[in-house]
Design a protein that fits this description.
about 250 residues, alpha/beta, TIM Barrel, eight-stranded parallel beta sheet
Length: about 250
């Protein structure tokens, strides 16, 4: 089946109020309508409300880069899922490699966030991926499938197909300039889709969007999207410039 491409920009701890306002204005030139890809933007938390307000009425998804699963509590500096929804955002990235490896989030932490987000009607971008050491030890499949199962096991198939995007992000290719070859990306994406077929059924697997993340640029996005199981991208550095990201979005036009 044909899945609509989903191209999302993760701005991490970059940009400021002025540059975000300019970026939101520039999105008016992005492709829209039939054949256009789905687009998502994930700004820093302090700019989430104004990004959501600036893009309200557009088709662009606005989401948080992370959030706590608790409804409220003594978590200084943190943001709750309900707060993400309250300011008008509709999605959240969960389990990004930087959250796992820099901030120490475990598979259990990631699952708690998945459950909390889905319970509030937020879409989830669930990130999975192996480190360089794990790849060199031939543990890619073991790591990726463990993270996938921990994040989605037991969740209703319809919910997965409708509200979860899986993002495969090889940790060794994030911000390093190294990119998984199209063949490497396709191999892992096919592995993820096959596992979803086993755990949630063929129909769910066929409908679930699987993005690639890891040094995606205008120069390599087309060959990545040409892979049968690569349905989009979670873009870091190349999403910070409207022209660069627009070129990536244009590559997703069906």
């Amino acid at each position: 089946m044909t899945r609509r491409a989903y191209l999302a920009g993760n701005w991490k701890m970059h940009l400021d109020r002025g540059s975000i306002a300019e970026f939101c204005e520039a999105t008016s030139a992005f492709p829209s309508g039939e054949g256009a890809p789905r687009v998502g933007l994930f700004p820093p938390a302090v700019y989430l409300a104004e990004t959501a307000a600036a893009l309200r009425g557009s088709e662009i998804v606005v989401g948080a880069q992370t959030a706590r699963p608790e409804d409220h509590g003594a978590f200084t500096g943190e943001v709750a899922m309900r707060m993400v929804r309250d300011v008008g955002a509709t999605a959240v990235i969960v389990g990004h490699s930087e959250r796992r490896h820099v901030f120490g989030e475990t598979d259990a932490d990631v699952r708690a966030r998945v459950d909390a987000a889905l319970a509030l009607g937020l879409e989830v971008v669930l990130c999975v991926g192996e480190t360089l050491d794990e790849r060199e030890r031939d543990e890619t499949a073991t790591v990726v499938l463990r993270q996938l199962d921990a994040g989605l096991s037991g969740i209703d198939g319809a919910t997965v197909a409708e509200a979860v995007t899986v993002a495969y992000e090889p940790v060794w290719a994030i911000g390093t300039g190294r990119t998984a070859s199209p063949g490497q990306a396709q191999e892992v994406h096919a592995l993820v889709r096959a596992r979803l077929a086993e755990t949630h059924g063929e129909d769910v697997a066929a409908h679930t969007i699987i993005q690639y993340g890891g040094s995606v640029k205008p120069g390599n996005i087309a060959e990545l999207l040409a892979c049968p199981d690569v349905d989009g991208a979670l873009v870091g550095g190349a999403s910070l410039d409207p022209a660069s990201f627009a070129a990536i979005v244009a590559a997703g036009v069906a």
